[in-house]
Amino acid sequence: MDRKQVRERIEKDKLVAVIRGLDKKEGILLSDACIEGGMRIIEVAYTTPDASEVLATLKKTHEN
Hints:
The chain has helices at about 5-15, 25-35, 50-60, and strands at about 15-20, 40-45. It is mainly α. Strand 1, helix 2 (about 25-35) and strand 2 form a beta-alpha-beta unit.
């Protein structure tokens, strides 16, 4: 997605989940729960340990 598409998605959905896990496992679990609950936009805060790895895992497991 480019910036314009991201902005349009946020404007359409009007809701962004911000994930701040205590560790990598919790970051993934919280993100998975949001996705299963229908959230389409998720931000994994870099206060979550190993946030880059959380994002990589989510991309692998939820990529369409």
